[in-house]
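Hey, I'm writing a tutorial for new members on how sequence and structure tokens pair up, and I'd like a real worked example in the thread rather than a made-up one. If someone can provide the structure for the chain below, I'll link this post from the tutorial.
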Amino acid sequence: MSKIAIIGAGAWGTSLAIVLGRTGNHELRLWAHEAEVRESLTLRHSNDLFFPGQKIPETVFVPPTLREALHRCEIVVSVMPSQHCRATFQQMAPHLAPFMQFVSATKGLEESSLLRMTEVISEVIHEKCGFVPRIGALSGPSFALEVARGDPTAITIASGDRELAEQIQRDFSDPRFRLYRNDDVIGVELGGALKNVIAIAAGVCDGLGFGHNSVAALITRGLSEMTRLAVACGGRPETMAGLAGLGDLVLTCTGGLSRNRSVGRELGFGRSLPEIITGMHGAVAEGVFTTQAALQLARQRGIEMPITEQINAILHRGKSPRDAIHELMTRSAKNETTLASL
């Protein structure tokens, strides 16, 4: 039996608690930042704010403090929004120990530093705790609602630490939730982050009333764009053709449960970004933050990312979605199979 702390009780964190709790094989703790979430989880065994209608096992302990959540914990699963990761781990630092294993399940990039989440976590722990953590990244095509209700799902645990990856694979897998191992942490994390940007573009097409042709083109060329940046950062192209790349990209661009696609759809309808975010009631669409970070990362590496450029212009410069799609379609002609082209 492993002692597991899930830090972050949004829809995905709550869903992971349901998955890990249904076997009864672990001592589980689910920590929520919001007092009202802790109350609903404790009293009603449900997350009424972020994940209503889904019951968590009564064996899942909801601690009031990070100290209690992390006490003698063996595996720490980080599931907070990307822009809160650094501050949360700084708060956690006094309660962390070298024997702990860490898993990041957040799909995003830190805007200020352009770092991936495992890099942020490692940096904070090394600076504040004085040790280099054993860490992996969990990613792949997974809507929280479908995972919670037990739909067959396959995702990836990525780590350069084979022993850690094998343990997470054993502890997290069951007949309805299958984990594959991968040692390409860069590719897996960038795949999980960048697909959200392309999903916003797919939503824009839907909001503008375009059909399946447009979305198919965006998925295909979006994958090319994602792969170029991942490879430039040290990832492998085959990872981008797997669960954490193509798999997650297809899901997020086409699934009705995708928050990023929904944001793009509303932009296509003509709504403003602040209006859309207000209507999300605290839910996070990571692609809104990732777009600017990805664009800066691409410029550092000398990589062209036209779709990301246009989504950034829509999100942060007020560009018309229709004008952005028109500009993508009227770019100079390219060779499809040339790595540098789009």
